[in-house]
Amino acid sequence: MDHLWRDRMAYILGAAKPPEGMCVFCEAPRQADDAAVYILHRGRLAYVILNIFPYNTGHVMINPYAHIDSIEKLDDDALLEIMQLTQLSLAAIRRVSQPHGFNLGANLGKAAGGGIDQHFHFHIVPRWQGDTNFMPIVAHTRVLPENLDDLYRRLRPAFDEVAYEMKL
Ligand SMILES: [Zn+2]
How many domains are there within the chain? Predict the structure, then answer.
């Protein structure tokens, strides 16, 4: 996942190869065009972005802007906002694609399956009955045929709508 993300983000950012040490989760929110990097919502301390190589359709990540590698380094404001953005994401995804359930979580460290383990990110993976056998979010990347641009265009209005309702 690490390589796929970096290659794709490098392409999006117009670089043949990502610069050494570039962090895609720091770079993505620096882009002006949300749609170009699939950012669904920008909060004050964290943002929501589509995973471009999802474990399931509608897999999003909530990332703090701060380049920190673990949850215990987040302050109270950031912790609260990440949970509020989790509520936002669940509600918005439910409106668009009516999943039967969700997996939520984080992979901290390479040993835990963290692809980009230097920048904490919280996964939200929609699930449907029978979509697959139980698949922990540490499973290997699955590339799905769904067009991410179409998915983004369906999800973004729902995120805007729910964010307005939640006064985020
Ligand atoms: Zn970073």
Answer: 1
Per-residue pLDDT tens digits for 142-168: 545 568 899 999 999 999 999 999 999
CATH code at 106? 3.30.428.10
In tens, the pLDDT along 13-24 reads: 555 555 667 888
**pTM of the predicted protein model:** 0.85
Three-state SS letters, 94-159: HHHHCCCEEEEECCCCHHHCCCCCCCCCEEEEEECCCCCCCCCCCCCCCCCCCCHHHHHHHHHHHH
Active site residues: 121
In the structure, ligand 1 is a single-atom ion and the residues with CB under 5 Å from it are 23, 25-26, 67, 119
Q: Ligand 1: distance of its center to the CA of 81 in Å?
A: 18
